[in-house]
Amino acid sequence: MNCGRARMAGILILAALAAGCASEQSAFSGEGVESARTLMLTWILFAGGALILALVCGLTALALFGGSARRTLSSERLVVVGGIVFPAVVLTVLLFYGYALLGAGAATGAAADSPLRITVEGNRWWWRVTYHTPDGDFDTANELRIPVGEPVALELTSADVIHSFWVPAYAGKIDMIPGRTNTLTLEASRPGLRRGQCAEYCGGPHAFMSFYVEALDAEAFTDWLASERGDAVVGDHPGADAFRRAGCGACHAVRGTDASGRVGPDLTHVGSRHSLGAGLLANEKGDFRAWIERHQELKPENLMPEMATLDEADIDSLASYLAALK
Amino acid sequence: MNETSPHAQISPTPRPDGEREKLLEIWATPKGWRLPTAVNNTVIGLLYLGAAFVFFVLAGILALVMRTQLAVPDNDLVSQDLYNQLFTVHGTTMMFLFAVPAVEALGVLLLPQMLAARDLPFPRLSAFAVWAYIVGGTVFFSTIFYDLAPRGGWFMYPPMTLTEYSPGDAADFWLLGIGFIEISAIAGAIEIIVGVLRTRPPGMSLDKLPIFGWAMLIFAGMIVVAFPAVILATMLLEIERAFGWPFFSPDGGGDPLLWQHLFWFFGHPEVYIIFLPAAGLVSMIVPTIARAPLVGHNLIVVALIATGFFSFGLWVHHMFTTGIPSLSLAFFSAASMAVAVPSGIQIFSWIATLASRTKKLRLTTPALFVLGMLFIFTLGGLTGVMVAMVPFNWQAHDTYFIVAHLHYVLIGGMVFPLFATFYYWAPMVSSRLLSDTLGKWTFWLMFIGLNVAFLPMHLAGLLGMPRRIWTYPDTLPWDGYNLVSTIGAYMIAAGVLVFIIDLIRNFRIGESSNPNPWDAGTLEFLPQDVYSTRSIPKVDSLYPLWDRPELAEEVEAGAHYLPDAPTGGRETIVTSPISATPQYVVQMPGPGWMHFFAAVFTAACFLLLTVKVVTPAIICGVLAVVCCLVWVWTIDKGPDAGPVEIGGGLRLPVYVTGPMAHGWWAMIVLMLVAGSLYLAYVFSYLYLWTSSPEGWELGAAMLPDAGSPMLSAGLFALAVALYVLARWALPEPGGNNLVTPALVILGACALTGGVVNEVWSHWQAGLRPTDSSYGAMVYMAGVLTAQLVAVIVIMSLFVCVRQMAGKIDQVRCAGLENTSLLVYYTFAQALVGLLIVHGIPHVAAS
Amino acid sequence: MSQSDANDRFVRRTAVSLAPILLWAAHFGLVYGGAHVACATADGAIGEPLADMAVWSVTGLVVLVLVGIGLRARSLLSAGASSGDTNSNDFLVHVVHALTLLSLLGVIWAGAAVNFMPTCATR
Q: How much is the pTM?
């Protein structure tokens, strides 16, 4: 009687997969070296689990409705074979497979010797991203770009509470803990734009702490790195004045200007990012406007003060300035 | 009466007139406004279970609000801040105010009946625990209505829950709520351990103990080991919040992961603390469904014991993503696999028992819930094996996959057996059975609803949906799954509603006309009244009611042990722990107000402390202690009656002291609790040392001279000697002297001096608890010993007063004996503390 | 009748009955605690082969003791006991045997992990 449900579960799983592969934040996509390894494991676990569930249901049905055939199940032998021998064998195989995966992960972690190191620091409720390149360090925020096919060592830490860094398409999550630095080796196997999200509840707008990871071909990545490292490229924009008057530079940095705050996200190339407000909004001028005017409504409890001193014209020029920081 | 039966006529029948009436009078339940004074396990157990069920419904309503919020993307039905409070209160209430109390309530309600004991060994203790829990739980839950509820999640990870990120009192209310469940869980554990080991009926040696008794024994043992870890964690967190001792904050050398280790060292076994009793219930119901003995009974006992132990090797399983080295993760993965084996044993044993059934299959409501449990729990167990695989866990952790997994395990593993229990054991407390028709509606709504609600969540989680998010954008493909889950949640709610209607229509407190409607084989289905069974049967098999069909009639006729009340008060038989040989008749207290007031004042004290109204809080605390003392004043009655006849030619004493006494056993369990607490402290000390060794290297330079710890150690040793002498100096019965009080007071002073000297020497050396995690840990050792010394001082004063009142002598000395046990323990703990505090920094510096 | 006989020699028989699973706990604590301390304090100071060897020896030792307890369960349980209570003793022997089996699984599974990965590496 219970087993109709098992079939339904199977159908649901298949239906999900179709949707899953198309998703930008899915563990089913397996587009990284680690996530592909884990996806294989996931399928094995799902298939094995379904088989064992079917077995238990079948035996229960036999025990309940099996006529005289059920007698074969009625001895302590079933408990010993089904409850001890069978799990001992299955779990030994599974456990050692898991150990092998762990060993493989540890090996790639140790071997990763990329010239590129990236530090990601969790902040309430955004991500500070620092690229350490042979030509010096620079900051960006809420977005990582990585080269395809190259292991990238991420150093993960936190400025305040515990967060967790998770891009399911590329790898499993790892926590960002104040006072510690955790490492994660990320390797994307094909180009694409994938979404990540904070997975450890961090209070307030935890739901709005997302980010993007874009995997680029080697050439595109080199170009991006060169331009991202550079200063802001917006000459005499009228919004720059509004930015200064509103005191934005006390918290935000725009390299190449006198804005050098480190409390909030770096805005040097904010106009070229894929999202605003840590994955909350798109990145057009209208979104900047919305953010400046209503950020406490859009992302309650975020730590940016209300911008009450700005008038309509200021907001407009400020929004276009920020959108122009490509 | 069957004349050939070996047990017939243990007590001669027919019994004298008026004997039953006397029992009824002695065990009568107080009525009306005196109801809070009641201590009968059936009354208290029912109250306990009822309160737990109310919290289940309330927390369930919070879940419905959350599910409604998540039904569609970008919803703003509830605010972000309210949602964060909702899931914190939902999780905390379900785990701490529903699940643990509910299984403990079943222990209080069912155990004495299964053991045919007249009551649990410490009736007022469980009553105290229940009232403290009801008052404290109600206050905690109501914070959700005043925007005062904590927002830290039920796991309350620092640093988010430190004052810097969680100012105000909300987080303290969480600590308060936990405080009550800590008190009532420990009280319950003492009660259950002593109850199972010492109040079994004559002849029920351990091999004949029903599985539920085993499950509760292991449950209680796990509480003794696991709860102290969370007690310590909550103490540390509250101290850091109130006084800034840096245990968890990395700035002062603390470590946020210490909280996670302590919390999950409690938190993972907690899952099994909830599951084991429920599995025990299933192992009781399945044989009745099959009307055949449980296949592999001994293996089930082993499975329960093994689960109890293995579950303590799983805690890091919740910390796979914290960056711990892979090899350590692998050890925990191994233990997570090991714990799956005992679950397999139980499931296959239930299947084998069902297959061996001797009567026609009837799918009654309890049977349906048991079968539902079998399916749901198996599925939850399988996803449990999945998350025990470390790489899979890295993806699934903190996503809706886990939400699905834990609800399968907890609802399948605990709620379904609980509902089976409601239907199965209703005849013990209700004069009418619950409706089988409505029961089936309840089952199918809950069973289908559960799968509709939680099956899709597995996929939502792997599609990237993290836990504890109050809303999600419509650009992600989660909306369909969430809508389906919400529909399922409402189906479960409908099922619970049907059950409540059934309760209202059919539940009537009273004795059932047919005590054994299911033809079950165990003692709780003997005819019952307020005094439990009319006489206490001699047991010689696992299913006495099946093996000796005439037993019910014999017991009811008073033909077995203790058919009367030889001391004229409440009493039951105490038997030896393994072979259940009768040892003595224990006199037990009846109704009273003091445990009730003690509970209310304890609750008031904690509450007022939470909102930082200190003076009234202290007054309430003192009143609570006074109430406790008044309550225990009358308990040690001494040998006020000679050995009494209990039937079968057995004459038993009514008063014993020393290792045979049930009070002595309770003290030993309490010492085990204190020992676990201290072990958790030692772990924390060593952990923080490895995590910030600098503090310890600096600390070595600030240690007091070796003379100071020597002095403290000497004072502690002196105290032990004084208490030994005090026992020796007790007067003969009827006599009186001042030597014992003088020695006891001196002993208490020596203990106090030892602690004060230790703390003061560190202060003199310039160490402050707020300086570093090292300093905080040094002073924490003092705090832990000081709290024991405070208890000893109060107990010692109590002993002195009793001695002067002529109530303690060479024979009647349980009060002094129990105090001395605590003194010996304190001596050992303090010595270990001195060794660590004064030894480890030298190791660190070398 | 001495006090310990009155209490069915409870402490001794409980200790023997639970010995296998207590050994599992001790083994678990040792290997986890050892690995933690080795990696947290002496980072790299303890050589890889040495750490592996330590885990293997502890595991081997515990397995031997477990087998010993399993084989000698009956005599350990009944040493010096009065002969009256054979039912309980048969039951406890059964418990020791099954617990030994489960503990062996747990110990071997945990011990085997060192073969698959370096001592202190994370992923």
A: 0.95
